[in-house]
Predict the 3D structure of the following.
Amino acid sequence: MTKSRKVDSMAAEDQVVRRVVVADDDYLVRMIVRAVLEGEGFEVIEAGNGETAVAENARHRPDLVLIDAHMPGATLAQSLAALLAGRDAHGAPGIVVITGDLTRPIEASEPTIGFLSKPVDLQVLLDTVAQYAVPAATKSPRPE
Amino acid sequence: MTSASGSAAPVEPESLLRIAGRLARFGGWSIELSSGIVTWSDELAEMLGYPRGYSPGLEAALSLHPPEDSAILTEAVRICGESGTPFDQQRRIHNSAGDILDIRTMGEAVRDGSGRIIRIQGAFFDVTTQVAAEAARLSMEQRLSTTLDSLSDGIITLDFDLNVTYANHQVAMIMRHPRDELIGKDFFELFPAGLGTEFAIGFRRALAERTKVSIHDYFAPLDRWVEATAYPVDGGLAIYFRDVTEREEARRLLAESEERNAAQAALLDVATDAIVVRAIDNTIMYWNHAAEVLYGWNSEEVLGRSKRDLLYADTVEFDAATAKLMRDGSWSGEMEHRHRDGRRIIVESSWTLVRDDDGQPVSVFSVNTDMTARRRLEEQNYRAQRMESIGTLASGIAHDLNNVLTPILISVQLLERGETDESKRRILSTVEASVKRGADMIRQVLSFAKGVDGKRVLVDIPTLLGDLRSLFHDTLPANVRLDVKAADGVWNTRGDSTQLLQVLVNLVTNANDAMPHGGTITMSARNVVLTDEYNSVSHLAAPGRYIAIDVEDTGEGMTPDVLTKIFEPFFTTKGSGDGTGLGLATSLGIIRSHGGHMQAYSEPGNGSHFQIHLPAIPTDADSTATAGNLDDLNDAVAMPRGQNEMILVVDDEASIRQMTRQSLEAFGYRTLVASNGAEAIEVVESGEEPVDLVLTDMTMPVMDGATAAAYLLKRHPTIPIVAASGLNANGGVARAAHSGVSNFLAKPYTTSELLVAVRSALDSHQNPPTTNEVSHGSH
């Protein structure tokens, strides 16, 4: 499966909000990633565990879900299964798994899933997000 | 004696009678009944101590007898006088001196022509001597009989027809017959069951051959063991019996118990536990075969020696256990014993106090189970578990630390982006570098903890070494030289070349760090075939084909203490901040995950040597060989045999000594061993067994190999010396050469390497440089 990254969708950039769900049980990690991504013009929605991440994804239809591999509650495999099942026709949302380990978790071996190893270099983070974010075709309304 | 005066004239019959009477002490007497006159012959008068011609009256004559005798004789004389009844009495009489004589007097009546009794006349014998003799005989008989009866042994006499003529009390007892029922009976009628027995045969033989016969046998009719000796005597046989049933029983019991003891001793000898019996004063009384094996002392060498002195380095422990044993009667626990060669042995020991019949302690029975190997295994398991838990812990911490570092790193980088102030940028860049270094360390911890499952592809060793050489091309200090060499035709291995390179980089980095003043790092690769024997020495590798990669430096070296810990995680000799202590631990993990192993040798001041063995994939040239078959392996390597030469193996490590010895003996050599240089010289110079070659380790306590080799080369130039060392390329060979040894064997050596080195040293030494020594052995 090849990723469909439609250049023409960029034309609607002004109307479309770029949105990302950041799921990590570590508050400081969420905070700094939010700071970086908001600086890049993303709307950031935080989640402290896999269940919340899946729920926020369904609700907000983000371009990207950045998800930590080790969180309390739902396992990475469960969360990824739900996220992959909920992808739209364009392959949104893009998914990037981030871990404290050296190697990509076996659950995230699907080639359309990105991988980041903590501690994450700022530039690597920006590049990876840019690479994997897929503008969603239909956005749910912005939350107030 | 007037009658004797005319000696020339023929002696008258009357005179002869008198002579006979005097000599035989008899005389004559007569009593005239009418007058009561008694006439004594001269011999009678003399016999009683009266003058010749003395004739007492009847009354007086009769009163010479003691009263009871007198009364009887008076009556006899009266009856004879009245009715003519003769008498013959044995009586007593007093002589003139008052002594009592035993006499026999016989009287008969003399009648006149009309038949009237006018006189009694008779003979008188002095029988004192005969009576005394008879009394003596009776008394003797009585005494003999009593004596024979009182004997605990039976005595029986048989006549020539085997009728019983005498049996003492014991015979009656043994034969369970009253004595009088025995006398006169045929012995074998009394005991028909005895017919045909050894006894019957023996008795007849004694009778027939007139010879002494002894029989010792079980006598079934009586259910007794009997010992009988038959002596031929005048009237037939005298047989001496003894009931030896009890003795026989005791002997049988003794034999049985001896048999049992022998069986028990044999059992004790096949026991795998060392069994030692010591007396209360600690001297060793028994030492089984397993004890010989466990402690290295033969039974004859230790009997009578003190167990306390022999086996215990720590006598406090022994004394405490002994005190408890004396109090409780038994003791058990773990102890440390000493092998003959000084090695420590851990045993599970169980002591029992043995007491005599009076309850006095006499000895201590102890059973010792060798726990050394088990303890070592437990220690290894413990260490492995510790490593594993350290891994788990480290992994958890590393994971969390990465979470901690993430906001720091991104924050710093964010701040750096917008920062124009150069000094602030520098500060932020320092923070960023620190965070990244921390992240690197965490990465190392994680890669150690996670284990390494990298790629498994064919790795070409020369290429790997080439990559290493170019990596270090520009980075090593000018005074450090790196020699890298792969032998021709070196095999491939299968694995992850990045990881293997990481291991080699780590080793070279460490070597460089160990040489602050410069030096040489040598890296070489070659093919080796490991056999079973080698496996036992190294405790690590399975038999098979390997590529050996040696990395040696000429640096500071390590103490044995440090050497034992270098593969432990977080152990580092480097200053804090310079190393994580994970380099070698990770390297070992990588090598093990490749199915190989890694060992280290080092001497302070002489450098270090790391040896890696990686399983080999034979190259095309020898692809026909299968790595799994040990017979093929043995065929693939040279195993030159010995010709009964005597090799002295010198090494302070007992396991190496033992394995080397076994390998040499398996291939036709005889061996002697020594655990240091001083001992080696002693063995050579004792001359008990001429030594054909000395194989010595270079590093040993008391006297090292180099010193011993130098001495032996000077004093015994005919004996070739092979120096063995874990430090080959640099320290070992150099020191061996320095001490004059030209034959060198790199440790750890395989059986093949050992045999080749020994054979070539022996062969090249056939013509010794000097001839003032007696040539040893047969080549």
